[in-house]
Amino acid sequence: MEMDAICIAGNDENALQACLSEAMDAGIKVSCLDAKVNPASRMTFVNQAGTKEIGEALMDAVLDISGGEGQWAILSATSQATNQNAWIEAMKEVMKEDKYSKLELVEIAYGDDEPQKSTDVTQALLQNYPDLKVICAPTTVGIASAAKVLQDSGASCKLTGLGLPSEMSEYIGDDEAHSCPYMFLWNPVDVGRLGAYTSIALVNEEITGVSGDKFTAGELGDYEVIEASDGGTEVILGAPFRFDSSNIDEWKDVY
């Protein structure tokens, strides 16, 4: 069977370079989605959300949930986590804007993406900062652990960040009984759709994967290939997807 395109999510950026390069040499259009392979192994990468967009969404959530002022903290994964650090730096950059001037970032804590350590770190944050208004956890392990601590303790501190709907559904709500008013991640259905449309555009030679290429992804709209931080190119789906009380029941069974 003749193959026209490959769109892959890479658990390891480098492991498949030899076979993916061979595929491209044979004329097969290679792209990746969700988790990227290195630039030499792809023509372009379909990314869920850009670093800047994630930073903006999380900071706006902290601003909203805190009421615009007060102490807040970040619960990250490990101090070496590349994506976490990039998102945190993006948040710090956004914080320079005047509207965030009354927010005080008191600590960046690390739960190492371990449930028990994330639990312990959350408890320590509550103890060390009794006036803490918001914890932002841009890690699915951290946010789930923090959500349980805050909800079980009845803390006034609230939570936002990046989480899995299946793990966070019982904690999301607009009332005092729930620890997380809303959070973000991505819409995996739309990531898949954009991956398919990108492959079609490559096969039809509407794009070649270079920065500046433009194409239409069906009902998703118009997209442009841009430079990625690793030296390759990417197509960004858009801003992170918001999960709140209006849609969490729909999404908790999806992923």
Explain this structure.
- The protein has 255 residues and is of the alpha/beta class.
- The strands form 4 sheets. The chain has a 5-stranded mixed beta sheet with strand order 1-2-3-12-11. Strands 5-4-6-7 form a 4-stranded parallel beta sheet, with helices on both faces.
- The protein folds into 2 domains: 5-49 and 187-239, Rossmann fold, CATH 3.40.50; 51-185, Rossmann fold, CATH 3.40.50.2300.
- The radius of gyration is 20 Å and the shape is elongated.
- The chain has helices spanning 17-25, 51-66, 82-95, 115-128, 140-153, 165-168, 188-203, 248-251; strands at residues 5-8, 29-33, 44-47, 70-76, 103-110, 132-137, 158-161, 183-185, 214-216, 222-224, 226-227, 233-236, 241-243.
- It contains 8 helices and 13 strands.
- It is found in: Cell envelope.
- It holds the Pfam family Peripla_BP_4.
- InterPro entries: Bact_Solute-Bind_Prot2, Peripla_BP_I, SBP_2_dom.
- It comes from Blautia caecimuris.
